[in-house]
């Protein structure tokens, strides 16, 4: 999922969460700075487990299903919103998750490593070519 | 801005836009599928121009200012929400913008090119090393 696509899916999750939230709870979240934290789940199965855990704790949650028109397969569960609620309650479900893994950072790290290996290979090539010319 | 950070900022923009939208306009947007499109602006100056253009057309807009606690500088204008409104009206402001540029895709393309160049260099190295051993 591209960064823009993720952002749109999270936007839908926020829309649902805000519209579905009791007024007092929504205002308390807003008074607290309207915190939004985007965390990483690695599969649809993990998203479903998180949703069950939220339900058991009586935390509101909303799943976003992508329509599959563009990047992902038909009716894929892409994003789960939990809350708004007190962060210590949300943390009971999400506390062990990591921040959303940035694919760009990973790809940039890989590119940097490849660039280094290429420079080393090209330096050795230059040496060998010079020897071959002797 | 990482993908997760962008998603959170867009989430704030959607929260503001939904809360600030007149009920009839919000319901009409929801009936139409609650479309959210994440587009690319290249500078804070461009975001400000887009916001002025939206205001001239009487389109509601909301700017998200990052608090600068984590990734970006203090009070940076990161995201502008325009609408909800009829898409032909929003398009009058945003019609020439491209979809949000995916930094991960660009970095992956670069890595793929580097991988190819490295393979070519290593193949030539193997040939030259074999010759040197003769």
Automatic annotation (TrEMBL), chains A, B:
UniProt keyword Hydrolase, yes or no: yes
Residue ranges that the Swiss-Prot or TrEMBL entry lists as coiled coil: 97-131
Gene Ontology CC terms: cytosol
Molecular-function GO terms, alphabetical: peptidyl-tRNA hydrolase activity
Catalytic activity from the UniProt record: an N-acyl-L-alpha-aminoacyl-tRNA + H2O = an N-acyl-L-amino acid + a tRNA + H(+)
Keyword field: Coiled coil, Hydrolase
EC class: hydrolase
Signal peptide: none
EC numbers for this chain: 3.1.1.29
InterPro entries referenced in this protein's UniProt entry, alphabetically: Pep_tRNA_hydro_II_dom_sf (IPR023476), PTH2 (IPR002833)
UniProt KW Manganese keyword: no
Protein family: Belongs to the PTH2 family.
Listed name of the protein: peptidyl-tRNA hydrolase
Native organism taxonomy: Eukaryota, Sar, Alveolata, Dinophyceae, Suessiales
């Amino acid at each position: 999922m591209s960064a823009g696509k993720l952002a749109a899916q999270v936007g839908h999750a926020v829309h649902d969460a805000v519209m579905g939230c009791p007024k007092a709870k929504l205002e308390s979240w807003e008074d607290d700075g309207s915190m939004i934290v985007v965390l990483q789940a690695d599969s649809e199965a993990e998203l479903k487990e998180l949703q069950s855990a939220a339900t058991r704790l009586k935390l509101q949650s909303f799943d976003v299903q992508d329509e599959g028109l563009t990047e992902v397969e038909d009716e894929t569960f892409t994003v789960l919103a939990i809350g708004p609620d007190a962060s210590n309650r949300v943390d009971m479900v999400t506390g062990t998750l990591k921040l959303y893994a940035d694919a760009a950072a990973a790809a940039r790290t890989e590119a940097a490593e490849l660039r280094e290996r290429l420079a080393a290979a090209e330096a050795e090539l230059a040496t060998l070519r010079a020897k071959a010319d002797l």
